[in-house]
Specification:
Number of helices: 4
Helix content: 25-40%
Distance between the termini: 7 Å
Shape: elongated
Radius of gyration: 21 Å
Structural class: alpha+beta
Number of strands: 9
Oligomer: single chain
Strand order of the largest sheet: 1-3-4-7-6
Order of helices and strands: HHEEEEEEEHEEH
Number of domains: 2
Largest sheet: 5 strands, mixed
Strand content: 15-25%
Length: 161
């Protein structure tokens, strides 16, 4: 799933254009917090735990920090059926080492977690609003915030796209 697809799915799910509105910047920040892996980039410093997806459809996790090779796509990554979960690969000019975490079966974005955070942001935006009553009308802003928090808690499971 691309960033554009994830953005559209999240905006649709949390009704981003309905008050309180979530901006594209807010949506993108939420999605960035829920990115499971990135593309491999040459000459880049990686920390332990960083995850990258390669063209062979597999995910590799950094197990020893370092800087990736100056050019190309790093080590000789095996193609299926020769790729095996748990294999390790040295990369770059330092100690950088990757471990094969298996095929990408869940997608780049955790949309369940992102949806939760988006609903919580909507709740935070209305939390400062106060309940109002007058002229026979009553507006319960606290109920709106509670509803957004309830929706957030219903969306904590992982989404698969």
């Amino acid at each position: 799933m691309t960033l554009a697809e994830a953005r559209a799915a999240l905006k649709r799910t949390v009704q981003a254009s309905v008050e309180p509105i979530l901006t594209d910047v807010e949506i993108d920040e939420i999605l960035a917090d829920h990115l499971r892996y990135s593309d491999y980039v040459a000459a880049t410093a990686y920390i332990v735990g960083s995850r990258v997806r390669l063209s062979n459809g597999r995910i590799y996790r950094c197990i020893v920090a370092g800087t990736s090779a100056d050019s190309g796509l790093g080590p000789e990554w095996p193609d299926a059926p020769y790729a095996h979960t748990g294999q390790t690969f040295d990369d770059g000019t330092g100690d950088l080492r990757w471990q094969d975490d298996g095929p990408d079966v869940i997608g780049a974005y955790d949309l369940g977690g992102a949806t939760h955070d988006a609903w919580m942001l909507k709740a935070a935006k209305v939390a400062a609003n106060v309940d109002f009553s007058g002229d026979g009308q009553s507006i319960k802003a606290s109920q709106e915030a509670a509803e957004y928090r309830k929706r957030a808690n219903l969306t904590t499971g992982a989404w698969v796209f």
